């Protein structure tokens, strides 16, 4: 099984299933531990809605020598994100490649639209969403 490795200001960490950067990482960072203990996954939705009126910071992701700008990057070897949402529908633990899903834009309303389409299992066909397969990437 292929391992992923993400490196940043926090150091370097390995992962088996998925790693998120940008908006995803900001939401996870802002989750209240007390609310998470009391309400589980709902705590992530609360943290996400709290960012609803804030512009999404952009980051550069390099995949196969090409640089992409995005506000949310997901690198995954599994289809489900957060248990219930399918974002990386082509990902598989049986594959040495990761599915890289990049979401463009800084407008938070655009991300609300993305999430509605995640729920409808149509996100990968949206303008502004790029799905790539890669063994190497750099955030």
Please explain how this structure is put together.
The protein is α+β, with helices and mostly antiparallel strands and 139 residues long. 26% of the residues lie in helices and 35% in strands. The strands form four sheets. Strands 3-6-9-10 form a four-stranded antiparallel sheet. Strands 5-4-11 form a three-stranded antiparallel sheet, with no helix packed on it. The two termini are 22 Å apart. The model has no long low-confidence stretch (mean pLDDT 88).
The CA-CA distance between the termini, in Å, is: 22 Å
Low-confidence stretches are none
Strand residues, percent: 25-35%
Instruction: Give me the count of strands.
Output: 11
Gyration radius, rounded = 15 Å
In sequence order, what are the helices and strands, one letter per element? EEEHHHEEEEEEHEE
Helix content: 25-40%
Protein structure class? alpha+beta
Helical segment tally? 4
Mean pLDDT: 88
Shape: globular
Largest sheet: 4 strands, antiparallel
In order across it, which strands form the biggest sheet? Answer: 3-6-9-10
């Amino acid at each position: 099984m292929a391992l992923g490795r993400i490196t940043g200001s926090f150091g370097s960490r390995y992962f088996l299933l998925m790693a998120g950067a940008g908006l995803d990482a900001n939401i996870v960072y802002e989750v209240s531990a007390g609310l998470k203990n009391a309400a589980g996954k709902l705590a992530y939705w609360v943290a996400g809605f709290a960012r609803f009126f804030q512009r999404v910071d952009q980051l550069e992701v390099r995949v196969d020598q090409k640089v992409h700008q995005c506000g949310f990057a997901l690198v995954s070897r599994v289809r489900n994100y957060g248990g219930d949402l399918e974002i990386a529908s082509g990902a598989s633990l049986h594959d040495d490649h990761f599915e890289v899903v990049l979401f463009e834009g800084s407008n938070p309303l655009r991300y609300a639209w993305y999430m509605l389409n995640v729920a409808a299992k149509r996100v990968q066909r949206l303008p502004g969403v790029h799905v790539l397969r890669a063994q190497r990437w750099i955030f």
